[in-house]
TrEMBL record, chains A, B:
<dbReference type="Pfam" id="PF22505">
    <property type="entry name" value="RNase_J_b_CASP"/>
</dbReference>
<keyword id="KW-0862">Zinc</keyword>
<feature type="binding site">
    <location>
        <position position="48"/>
    </location>
    <ligand>
        <name>Ca(2+)</name>
    </ligand>
</feature>
<feature type="binding site">
    <location>
        <position position="75"/>
    </location>
    <ligand>
        <name>Zn(2+) 1</name>
    </ligand>
</feature>
<dbReference type="InterPro" id="IPR030854">
    <property type="entry name" value="RNase_J_bac"/>
</dbReference>
<feature type="binding site">
    <location>
        <position position="50"/>
    </location>
    <ligand>
        <name>Ca(2+)</name>
    </ligand>
</feature>
<feature type="binding site">
    <location>
        <position position="392"/>
    </location>
    <ligand>
        <name>Zn(2+) 1</name>
    </ligand>
</feature>
<feature type="domain" description="Metallo-beta-lactamase">
    <location>
        <begin position="20"/>
        <end position="214"/>
    </location>
</feature>
<dbReference type="GO" id="GO:0004521">
    <property type="term" value="F:RNA endonuclease activity"/>
</dbReference>
<keyword id="KW-0698">rRNA processing</keyword>
<feature type="binding site">
    <location>
        <begin position="232"/>
        <end position="234"/>
    </location>
    <ligand>
        <name>substrate</name>
    </ligand>
</feature>
<feature type="binding site">
    <location>
        <position position="445"/>
    </location>
    <ligand>
        <name>Ca(2+)</name>
    </ligand>
</feature>
<dbReference type="InterPro" id="IPR042173">
    <property type="entry name" value="RNase_J_2"/>
</dbReference>
<keyword id="KW-0255">Endonuclease</keyword>
<feature type="binding site">
    <location>
        <position position="78"/>
    </location>
    <ligand>
        <name>Zn(2+) 2</name>
    </ligand>
</feature>
<keyword id="KW-0540">Nuclease</keyword>
<feature type="binding site">
    <location>
        <position position="141"/>
    </location>
    <ligand>
        <name>Zn(2+) 1</name>
    </ligand>
</feature>
Length: 557, 557
């Protein structure tokens, strides 16, 4: 037991070999620290699913050991799973001021605000969880108040970077704390977990200030109204938009629930400086000249229900884009959203707007919040870790990050690319992969968490491609023949009124199949249903090359 | 009538405000010429649909006038609709040698080869269709044997560029015919239709030779097997791959149906030069050292059933990717395919391969086949058209192309951005939009063409998101009460075995609803079904926040 007291291992419950639903655990003896609790948006293969969150079975099996959930920053892929997590396991949360503000918005929506223990930390905090001491360092990213975490254990120090870039000329003086990082590295880092999002991109990510300059220029050039869409949580960019509006003499309209919520929290907490008299309601824009109006809104990812999409299709109740207005999309499309964003740009041009989009360095309205290769190397060099696990990224990014680590001197055999759930244990300074704990996708669909599994998804897939054909037949129990039917109902297969001949053929085939079966075997339901499904399935595929789900309903009376 | 004899109009039946299914018509008096007959792959909103082709109602209503289908080149978005077109309207096709070779592959598959009249043309052909004379000019693009078309009518000359770039150092000497274009322009162009695919991109597209250099370098550096995936129809790139294999002493394996088909046609017709003894079967690779093997395969767009995808998941019967092998993806992902391609790259890295992808200019393995802004301006300048219609592109591309045309001197009021089906008429040298002819998406699903409409798609959408709940009840006709049931069947909604409580609640709700209805109104089926749908729908949404399709089946006996 003494040996196990200091046993140290780490694992990802989400966030490796994927983008999103970040969650990492560090266990040392009887203490477990959880880092981040993110969600992820499902891709098109998860039909009808709203959200994907990490499977926390391992934590539920070890509830008494779980001491804290530490959050690195307030993006959805780091906080989106919190309400679902808390409903299963209510543990204290530690986060910085803005991050807590954003978590509180979520907790309110889920009615969890009163029962949750939120602890404010900053980069100077030191917290003890039994044998583990946590300290922190400031990083910068596309949201303020980001923290990297150093967990000092009896085996040594484990560092988790969170998301970061090295923006040396940041907005609002949110500098990356190079000196603190250097100190941590100097004192020895046993294991580093560092984010890999941009590990495929050479060079150094440009400063957020570049975007500010471009926005200011576009605002001052625009002759009429300016609409600009960006991520609500990119508070530094929002500040630069506010500044550009002030400089060009424009009042500002905020549109979209998350834009209003987040700016309100950021303002209240002092992260955003907006003069009171510059904010106006959308309904009041007519009282100003077009060149005195700027509109900041949600929807930069082409989300069909968000404000930008509604504006682009002239579907907003209060405000309209007029020919000659300027529309800026200050974001790039996340993979999977390209087509929706392109459709919006088309619609904006159709309305006669000047549309500014894209991330070229000369006029670009977006820079990444993640460090490129040189910045990842800088972090690795500062931390000088003995062992390294690249995190936050799909495999090719983790792979490139491994090459970067090797290039700055981390020994190849000391780098571990892991899957979600794989444990890396360190004992007596020696690290190795030791096994697996449960990890995977927990699907959220409406109010259901985890109740949608492979069977339901497979059914949805078949239904989505070829629809369903329901065949209803009533048999006489006593006389052993067809009493009524078959009634054929098609949904998503063919439109019945346009397919009369096919419907007649289906009808005949069902009747002849059933009569033959009744004659040969009597009414054995299961065999009857299976035979109907097979016979009808073959016939329909031959006739249409489609494979609808076939649902035979046989009623005996 | 005399006035109408020379009446000239043009329209797009597909290809504007979209990428794909290109089809343009020019009508002059009683003659209609059709240019291209493409197909388009459905986006995710067209659930279960295989292909989209143009609606040709207008041509079917004017069959006697349709004189010819002229094809500019052999890409799917220009020839993919031909078999479906011919089944409705069998008219002579005119195309260049390779284009005909590729069309013949399609006609064979559809059993149409014998009944189709294929006419070989080249850039020197002159053909008369009544009052219309057609002449042609060579362009270059990512497939050999591309033609631009000049249709000389009594009203003036209308030019359609097809797809093009200006590659001045093309592979296999397929030069763009600048002198012919200059001649056509000098003699006066009334109306130009020019492609807009890259109208958003500044500068000049690099030469295909650049890719050849990079491929040759990668082939010679690779220590083991090389796998390379590209579009089968990019015969020039295939030639460069063949040359790189020869230079690096490698035998070549061709994998994938379209790769085998297209290279075989291109070889036979003299567009591709592959020494006989260098081609080997996939099964024979073991007889050679790994550094003497190159594999050219399909699947560069991440298509799940294509060779590259199967290789990446170690699912190919004959050949395997080993650690240290090199895999080159010589293509960029078409919008919508990014995630599938990324997944393949991940899997290739997991197998230990060196993966080379992306289109950066230093090591890039792909260049576009479409001209960038400077090339579009070059075409506009050569043609000096009086009127201009940008084609081939989504609205933002057409819009940018309009700006380019203005920048080289085309009068703003002489530029028409049209929708599919909008007619632009020119009479006495004056062009104007005059109306609309039918145009739209014809959906191909399995063997069905055009039988899937909005109702079926809407059903598929609902089924895909939340599944279906079938409720079966048997009523006694004479006694007016429930005889048996309700039986509740869920597909794609919830997994019944995990949802016993919900199923019990549904059961009770159905019974109480039906009994109440029977008491109050007797057995009025339609009202009963509607009430069940409403009541159950509200209940399920409150319980689960999901909206499955509800299908009540009521049987009276």
């Amino acid at each position: 037991m003494n040996k196990d007291r200091n046993k140290l291992f780490v694992a990802a419950l989400g966030g490796v070999n994927e983008i999103g639903k970040n969650m990492y655990i560090l266990q040392c003896g009887d203490e477990i620290i959880v880092i981040d609790c993110g969600s992820k948006f499902p891709d098109e293969s998860f039909l009808g699913i709203d959200l994907i969150i990490p499977d926390i079975t391992y934590l539920l099996n070890n509830t008494e050991k779980v001491k804290a959930l530490i959050i690195t920053h307030g993006h959805e892929d780091h906080i989106g799973g919190i309400p679902y997590f808390l409903k299963q396991l209510n543990i204290p949360i530690y986060a910085s001021r803005l991050t807590i503000g954003l978590i509180e918005i979520k907790l309110k929506e889920h009615g969890l605000l009163r029962t949750t223990q939120l602890n404010l930390i900053d980069s100077n905090s030191h917290i003890s969880f039994g044998a583990i001491q946590a300290s922190f360092f400031s990083t910068n990213h596309s949201i303020p108040d980001c923290l990297g975490i150093a967990l000092h254990t009896p085996e040594g120090t484990v560092v988790h970077t969170g998301d970061f870039k090295f923006d040396m000329s940041p907005v609002n003086h949110q500098y990356p704390d190079l000196h603190r990082m250097a100190d941590i590295g100097k004192n020895g880092v046993l294991l580093l977990l560092s984010e890999s999002t941009n590990a495929e991109r050479p060079g150094f990510t440009p400063s957020e200030r570049l975007v500010g300059d471009h926005i200011a220029e576009a605002f001052s050039k625009a002759q009429q109204k300016v609409f600009i869409s960006t991520f609500a949580s990119n508070v530094h960019r929002v500040q630069q938009i506010v500044d550009a509006a002030i400089k060009s003499g424009r009042k500002l309209v905020l549109l979209g629930r998350s834009m209003v919520n987040v700016t309100s929290v950021a303002k209240e907490l002092g992260y955003l400086n907006i003069p009171e008299d510059m904010l106006i309601d959308a309904g009041d824009t007519d009282r100003y000249a077009p060149e005195n109006i700027a509109v900041l809104c949600t929807g930069s990812q082409g989300e069909p229900m968000a404000v930008l999409s509604r504006l682009a299709s002239s579907n907003h109740r209060q405000i309209e884009i007029m020919p000659g207005d300027t529309v800026i999309i200050a974001a790039t499309a996340i993979p999977g959203n390209e087509r929706n964003v392109a459709r919006i740009i088309d619609n904006l041009y159709l309305l006669g707007a000047n549309v500014i989009y894209g991330s070229g360095s000369s006029t670009g309205m977006h820079v990444s919040g993640h460090g490129n290769q040189e910045e990842l190397k800088l972090m690795l060099t500062l931390m000088k870790p003995q062992y390294f696990i690249p995190v936050h990224g799909e495999f090719r990014m983790l792979y490139q990050h491994r090459l970067l680590a090797e290039s700055v001197g981390v020994a190849e055999e000391n780098i571990f690319i892991v899957n979600n759930g794989e444990t890396v244990e360190i004992q007596n300074n020696i690290a190795r992969k030791t096994g697996k704990i449960p990890a995977g996708n927990m699907l959220v669909d409406g109010l259901g968490i985890g109740d949608i599994g492979n069977v339901v998804l497979r059914d949805r897939k078949q239904l989505s491609a070829d629809g369903i054909l329901v065949v209803v037949i009533t048999l006489s129990k006593t006389e052993g023949h067809v009493l009524s039917g078959p009634d054929i109902i098609s949904r998503g297969f063919v439109y019945v009124r346009d397919s009369e001949a096919l419907m007649r053929d289906i009808n005949q085939l069902v009747v002849s199949t059933i009569e033959k079966l009744l004659e040969e075997h009597g009414s054995q339901w299961n065999m009857m249903k299976q035979t109907l499904r097979d016979t009808l399935g073959r016939f329909l595929f031959a006739q249409t090359k489609r494979r609808p789900m076939i649902l035979p309903i046989i009623i005996e009376v």
